[in-house]
Structure prediction request, 175 residues.
Amino acid sequence: MRTKKDQLFEYVMKVNDENLTALNIALLQRNKTIVKLLLNACKKEQLIEHLMKEIDEKKYTVLHFASLKGHEEIIKLLLGIFSEEDDKDKLIEFVMKEDENRYTALHHAYGKGHKEIVTLLLKPFNEKIRKNLIEYVMNEKWTVLHEASFKGPEEIVKLLKNEWMFSYENKCNMK
Prediction:
């Protein structure tokens, strides 16, 4: 027998003609009050599974959209869902989920010059994981450093360089 919370989740996650749920719409509209209300109506496992899904033909997740648009408060809410230690693997998967161009939320945040979003996306992770995330986005043919250099947000280039250099120096010092 389904619980009332399961029934509410199904209702909250019902999609419209554009394949968007009420939660997707509230997230895209940056309506923190409604987002919090809808997040509290869902079981954590169901919510994490939903957030991993793509919501458009470009294979964007809500995190891709929030990173592109610089929606700092929404990203804090989204990352807060993964607060338990045993959620870290899912959080890495969420942050590093790729769109159709193989861009992650980190790529989008770097490319748009959203320094505070980049910092938020890296903050939950320890140094080793941050280093791996940075190396991943830097090992593409057209890296986030290329993107940031091309578009000109100087602060992002500095942040990326400093984060990478910090990881590289620590790697060298550990030998």
Remarks:
- The domain at 4-173 is CATH 1.25.40.20 (Serine Threonine Protein Phosphatase 5, Tetratricopeptide repeat).
- The two ends are 57 Å apart (CA to CA).
- Residues 154-173 form the longest helix (20 residues).
